[in-house]
């Protein structure tokens, strides 16, 4: 944010001070629509994660988590749901015994008598705001959610760390060393971006099986460490580091690894932060590759584990929404912590 500007002044500033042009209106409309397009699904998922299972599939859907009110009625073993009924021009609260087609059998919950047949068009459910905390507590206590979370954290952390080290070493060699075929190697690395993932997935799986890493978390981590995107991003940023600085370090008898570790890496921190954000998002949200490699439930990552809530005949949307919303927290924290480096890191890749 520009220094000296308050948040309101920053958001309401225009191209021409004191005048609102067409471009200002279009910019505000674009930003507002883009924000709503991203925010509304997240808000809906968060609110729906607190809804009872029956309310998630209800039509028309409701924004707030609400549930039907139930009451114990004498003469009935199970509690009955309460409905607002129009009877002889009066609105009354009655309990539904059963529903047969377009007719509902209703009784007075305070003075139950013979059921009264009412048209379903004349009834509406009595609901109240209800937070279904069991959507969060059940997966944590009855299922292996914590195991899935631990595996995802391990895979994401280790894969991101190795990705930063391996791609930084490759970028350092391609940006600060001159050798025959350096440009050809760089073009070859970048050209792999055009190869679809489905083409290399089968050969990669055969390699993982051959080295004995199938059904192992390392079988997910190692094949994804080398990234052409990471090499390109870091190389372009390292080109902005003056060669004279490295030559001066060599004159002072610094080793090549010391130059890389103490000089180049600290200066490349913005680009490393950008690559770290990308890597965390890639590893945390990866579903297909862990689904192929892993077969034991105790090794499932979070995304594969969430698939266990989807059965052949039913889908436990209340658990899926709750755990999906909970899984957004780690990547959101990482993004908020490193987002200030995004602009600096990406802008620096095109300076040279």
Task: Please explain how this structure is put together.
- Keywords: Cell membrane, Membrane, Transmembrane, Transmembrane helix, Transport.
- It holds the Pfam family BPD_transp_1.
- By secondary structure, this protein is an alpha+beta fold.
- The chain has 3 domains: 7-48, no CATH class; 70-125; 143-348, Orthogonal Bundle (MetI-like fold).
- It is 56% helix and 11% strand.
- The chain contains 16 helices and 8 strands.
- The strands form 2 sheets. Strands 2, 3, 4, 5, 6 and 7 form a 6-stranded antiparallel β-sheet that branches. Strands 1-8 form a two-stranded antiparallel ribbon.
- Strand 2 and strand 3 (80-87) form a beta hairpin.
- Helix 2 crosses helix 15 (317-338) and helix 6 crosses helix 9 (228-238).
- The mean pLDDT is 83.
Structure summarized in a few sentences:
This protein has 352 residues and is α+β, with helices and mostly antiparallel strands. It contains 16 helices and eight strands. Strand 5 and strand 6 form a beta hairpin.
Topology as H/E string? HHHEEEEEEEEHHHHHHHHHHHHH
The portion of residues forming beta strands comes to 5-15%
* Mean pLDDT over all positions: 83
- Please tally the β strands and state the result: 8
CA gyration radius, whole angstroms? 29 Å
Number of discrete domains: 3
Q: At the third CATH level, what is the topology name of the largest domain?
A: MetI-like fold
């Amino acid at each position: 944010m520009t220094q000296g500007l308050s948040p309101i002044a920053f958001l309401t500033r225009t191209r021409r001070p004191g005048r609102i042009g067409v471009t200002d209106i279009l910019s505000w409309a674009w930003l507002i629509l883009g924000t709503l397009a991203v925010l509304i699904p997240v808000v809906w998922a968060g609110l729906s994660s607190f809804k009872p299972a029956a309310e998630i599939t209800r039509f028309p859907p409701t924004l707030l988590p609400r549930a039907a009110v139930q009451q114990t009625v004498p003469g009935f073993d199970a509690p009955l749901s309460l409905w607002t009924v129009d009877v002889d021009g009066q609105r009354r609260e009655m309990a539904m015994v059963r529903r047969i087609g377009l007719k509902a059998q209703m009784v007075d919950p305070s003075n139950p008598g013979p059921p009264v047949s009412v048209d379903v068009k004349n009834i509406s459910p009595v609901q109240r705001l209800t937070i279904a905390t069991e959507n969060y507590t059940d997966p944590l206590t009855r299922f292996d959610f914590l195991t899935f979370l631990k595996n995802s954290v391990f895979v994401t952390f280790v894969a991101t760390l190795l990705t930063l080290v391996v791609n930084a070493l490759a970028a350092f060699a391609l940006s600060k060393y001159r050798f025959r075929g350096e440009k050809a190697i760089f073009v070859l690395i970048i050209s792999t971006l055009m190869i679809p993932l489905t083409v290399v997935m089968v050969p990669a799986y055969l390699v993982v099986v051959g080295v004995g890493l199938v059904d192992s978390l390392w079988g997910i981590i190692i094949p994804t460490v080398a990234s052409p995107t990471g090499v390109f991003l870091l190389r372009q940023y390292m080109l902005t580091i003056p060669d004279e600085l490295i030559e001066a370090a060599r004159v002072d008898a610094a080793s090549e690894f010391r130059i890389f570790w103490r000089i180049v890496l600290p200066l490349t921190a913005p680009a490393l932060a950008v690559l770290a954000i990308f890597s965390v998002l890639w590893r945390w949200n990866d579903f297909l590759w862990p689904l192929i490699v892993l077969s034991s439930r105790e090794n499932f990552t979070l995304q594969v584990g969430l698939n266990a809530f989807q059965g052949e005949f039913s889908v436990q949307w209340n658990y899926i929404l709750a755990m999906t919303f909970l899984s957004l927290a780690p990547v959101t924290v990482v993004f908020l912590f490193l987002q200030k480096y995004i602009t600096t890191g990406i802008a620096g890749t095109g300076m040279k």
